[in-house]
Amino acid sequence: MTFSLLARDAATGQLGIASQSHYLGVGSVVTWAEAGVGVAATQAFALRSYGPRGLALMRAGIAPVDAVDQLLDEDTHPEIRQVAFLDTEGRIGFHCGRRCVGALGVAVGDQAIALGNMLDNDDVVPALLRGFEQADGDLAHRLVAGLAAAENAGGDIRGSQSAALLVVAGRGGGAGAEAPWDGIIRDLRVEDHSDPVNELSRLVRLSDGFDRMSRVVFDPDGAVVGERRCGPDFGADAHELADAASALDSNPEATFWSAVLHARWGQADEARRLFSAASQQNPRLERFVGYLSEAAILTPDEVASLRDAGR
């Protein structure tokens, strides 16, 4: 009822998994990952414990193939499981039980593995791997491209409902299992949708925009929140926020923060233009900007100037 793709990016070391299923919330069952450890998929008649237990075994230094075998030995129904593990070295372990429902299959590539069951036809899994291998962009975009190729090849024979993407860093954040939130690069889920893969692709693009905005806005030492200063950061940050605003489309968040950035750096005319555009889309920003004076992000005079532009 699910097809999944696990991969390691040889250039960055990132690890990722993407899945689609005719089942509510595939990401809460199938997709598992931990920075500096590996990724895991547990599907068919899925047993969730394969995910966290598989990661624990790989974290302890056990090779994926041995980790899979160990968990299968402890499973009373291995014949209905479809499982894959991939670690930070690109090593792979997998299992496809004899009673998993077809069409089904597994395709192994270079530091990547595709697997699926209850599929429309035998080409879905090879298409999943080909779509990934032939795509451009970072790991997240290529994983979603793989899902799209699998859907175009027929996908789940019962239809589509949910999709998930999880990408983590190849190296841990230093605290290991004590800080599982460290190293998460993408964690996106479409729980219930008529076209979940397309929706997941849209969310990845939107996430790109929010990442650009966050790098500028939420850096406590950066040009928006940190100490006022002159230097080369303004131009790069203004460019990042402009790109983010384009990605966010009708959401004025990046445009608003670009107005704040320009106001802080003495670009009053451009700040007023940007704030006017943002407040037209969300009039409540005229009230919100006042709070930035209380937080010592803008001066009262800068707030007044922006509010004048919004009226």
TrEMBL record:
InterPro entries: DUF1028 (IPR010430), Ntn_hydrolases_N (IPR029055)
Pfam families registered for this protein in UniProt: DUF1028
The protein's name in its UniProt record: Uncharacterized protein
Source species: Mycobacterium bourgelatii
Source organism phylogeny: Bacteria, Bacillati, Actinomycetota, Actinomycetes, Mycobacteriales
